[in-house]
Design brief:
globular; alpha/beta; Quinone Oxidoreductase, Chain A, domain 1; Rossmann fold; 2 domains; five-stranded parallel β-sheet; seven-stranded mixed β-sheet
């Protein structure tokens, strides 16, 4: 089968296509014929090994010393179950599924074997929303898992004032919609070119971080959700955190690992199929252009998710 592999940490050009053996599922695994993957922040992080000096040693011990221990990287997949192990029960051949692959990665390939139960190592899997393409489903899987995990951590109640910093990204676009569905009044923060997009997702107010350095005077928030993480800063970002109301909560996607939960992913499926959530897909590349896709995402300022089509 064809796969994109990364044998050494570094720039996008370290990714290359090659032929590798097609995997065979163990008794407790299903094999997914992958039709789409994605380029996520996790993939950029793993391929480049861009971590602080303090984290270099633990990162390389966990992921690999000079390159990824599992050279077929890729964190998100969507496809069709084409083979099941003798001890599996959740999925059948022909089921359309999507999910996250965990620390063993492997989504930049035509096939990937997945165990049925959740694991940080092995990932999570659920039935794909029927109203999404496989490319759209990759944005729903990654962005939905992040959005639900961290918005729920903010304990939103109806009427709360919620600010989503990075409201035009893969998780931010879904966090805006999810917070609105919980009854919150939502302010989104993004750049000029994405103001209309974020407003169309249901944001009550939109702040352009290229134009303003602080929220309007008197505005305060019950929850500030940082959906871009600590590596991106601005005067507005700092001012938003200072605008927390008494008892307000600040939550960042850097606050711990992404929880790979098939139950939460099934909840994303239900919310998408009901029309509550609609993932935003900003660009799609074929697997042959994986280097260009990584370069585009690494340069920043993407809109929604970036999918990889795998034939």
């Amino acid at each position: 089968m064809t796969a994109a592999v990364c044998t050494r940490y570094g720039p996008p050009e370290n990714l290359r296509l090659c032929q590798v053996p097609r995997p065979t599922p163990n008794p407790d695994e299903v094999r997914v014929r992958i039709l789409a993957s994605a380029v996520t922040a996790s993939d950029i992080f793993i391929r480049s090994a861009r971590v602080s000096a303090r984290l270099q040693v633990p990162f390389r011990l966990m992921m690999g010393l000079t390159g990824p221990r599992h050279p077929i990287i890729g964190f998100v997949l969507s496809g069709v179950v084409d083979q099941v192990g003798s001890r599996t029960s959740r999925f059948r051949v022909g089921d359309e599924v999507y999910g996250g692959t965990g620390f063993r990665l492997g989504a930049y390939a035509q096939y990937r074997c997945m165990i049925e139960h959740d694991s940080r190592i092995h990932g999570c899997l659920a039935l794909k929303p029927r109203n999404l393409s496989h490319e759209q489903a990759t944005a729903a899987a990654y962005g939905g898992l992040l959005a639900l995990q961290y918005v729920d951590r903010g304990r939103i109640r109806a009427g709360d004032e919620v600010l989503v910093y990075g409201a035009s990204g893969t998780s931010g676009t879904l966090a805006v919609q999810y917070a609105r569905s919980l009854g919150a009044r939502v302010t989104g923060v993004c750049s000029t070119r994405n103001v209309d997009l974020v407003r169309s997702l249901g944001a009550d107010e939109v702040l352009d971080y290229t134009q303003v350095d602080a929220p309007p005077p008197g505005d305060g928030y019950d929850l500030v959700l940082d959906s871009v993480g600590g590596q991106k800063t601005s005067l507005l970002k700092d001012a938003c955190r200072r605008a927390l109301l008494p008892g307000g909560r600040h939550v960042s996607i850097d606050d711990g690992d992404l929880e790979l939960s098939s139950a939460r992913l099934a909840q994303v499926t239900q919310l998408v199929e009901s029309g509550t959530l609609a993932p935003v897909l900003g660009a799609t590349y074929p697997l042959d252009d994986i280097v260009a896709a990584h370069r585009a995402v690494q340069d920043g300022h993407k809109r929604g998710g970036v999918a990889i089509t795998i034939d």
